[in-house]
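Input/output pair, single chain:
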Amino acid sequence: MKKYLLILVDIFLVCVGYLLTLLFADIGHEYNLNLHTISANLYIAVIIYVIFLYLFRVYNSILRFSSVHEYSLCFAACCISGGVVCIAKLAIPFLMPYGVHLLAALLSGMLTVCVRVGCRIVLNWYLHRRAQGEDHPCVRTLVVGAGEAGNLLIKDVLSHHETNLKIVGFIDDDPRKTGCSISGIRVLGNRDHLKRVCAEKNIDLIVITIPSIDGENKKQLIELCVETKCRVKVLPSMNDLIRTKPMYQNLREVEIGDLLSRDPVELDNWQLEKMIASKTVLVTGGGGSIGSELCRQIARYEPGLLVILDIYENNVYDLENEIRFNYPQLHLKTVIASVRDRVRLEQIFAEYHPDVVFHAAAHKHVPLMENNPTEAIKNNVFGTLNAAECASKYGAKKFILISTDKAVNPSNVMGATKRLCEMIVQALNTVSKTDFALVRFGNVLGSNGSVIPLFKRQIAHGGPVTVTHKEITRFFMTIPEAAQLVLQAAANAAGGEIFVLDMGQPVKIYDLAENMIRLSGLVPNQDIEIKITGLRPGEKLYEELLLEEEGLKNTKDRKIYIAKPLDIGYAELKNKLQELSRVINEEDEWSVKEVLHNMVPTYHIDYSGKVSPEQVANA
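Output:
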């Protein structure tokens, strides 16, 4: 019905175009045109115009979503129709002069386009107002970034009446754009004018639409936006956009990771495909924060088989469902097992013969491992030994250990066990055909047990947010970035390397707490208290990424470095591990720590919690 109504409108507009042409040209007397002749000309012209508008599929588009493409087709159909009428004049003498038809074609084209644009504007305005109503008050929105992404956002908002966003203006640092309009929305200034514009225009929401912005600029811009007390959202990178959604539905809240000033990782896809495609890849600890993200990243490169191994079934159950949904063609196996169980590991390696092993299974919570050192050793040290020896025995091409900055000059049991894990894979590399390497990095934002989830819970409960020391610092990166860099390092591994990831500048945990409170729309130490609780057993003020004797050299990837491997004899290390195995069975915490210190001389034991035999007797 709407299509036929539009055809009738176009017929009327064509007639108007011809009548306006005759009125302006004033050629009626010169060519002796009468009502009958004009009617015959209009009849023939209308038929030709409707035919060509139909052939150009003008009536198939939805008026509310019409764009420049549809308008161009409409104008072109009218111009071609005018040309066809001129050609018809050669066979039909009573048709009006060529100039009349050509000018009428231009006028008709402009009229049909103008009417469509007007209808689209009025219809979208009406639907937008009706969708908002009283229950959906408009959100006055300021867009930062008057580039391609910002323009696409504007178009999406204008064409989707269900959104309650009302775009008030743009902010852009390009001085040439200030005062200009994009899709009818003015550029109101640069970032220096942000606070003033937000106050003058009563802005509720700031949207940052600069997907290609570098890390440092992004951090500074977000901090400026947060100071305005407005809600802040960001548009993800173009790679992370879900193309099937309107642009405004891709917007996400600002996350603490946006304030790390880290640039996106550029992966060497060819190298990764060569390492992973059609290969069998095993990820131990596959249900954990890093392990699960590794599995997601690996799945993109179409391995022949992905084996996810973990002892905790709930995490891997959710991960398995997610990966099967996103990659339905992927050959996937989920295995519930502990790396401490050598017999079970032997069965798994014998069945699947993995080509590449990523070893992410470990106990990692510093205070818990400080109080349970034997469990840390059983899982971290002997779990790594089991997995590494199985990889060597069953012919894996690569074995990559996920290590930590806490392994460098460790002051706690967890760090000491991870340093021992590093020594195991370095020693094995000297006697095995498998290429053993390790990747060392700092804390990962949002991982299980990290400060971010803890701070979020504390803020949600009204505080206080607890920080152990005002000057304590840590290195941070996001989970996807850590997983991507681990994969990139693995692709470069030739055996024996210590890959050290560029963690950027260390971050003060106190500053992190303040930023998280501000991102929640609150004021630190006013709305939410930040409480200093004191360092915990085994906790250092700062972490290191490198031992003094390891040195460092660049790789072709600017975010990955290689430390010099130390010469560690495998036979001697095995003998020391046997002694460690004997001691942990005695469950004597301090004896275990002392043996651990003998094996890892850089480990500094914290004796502050030790109870003497006399104290035990007196108790």
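The radius of gyration is 34 Å. The longest strand covers residues 165-171.
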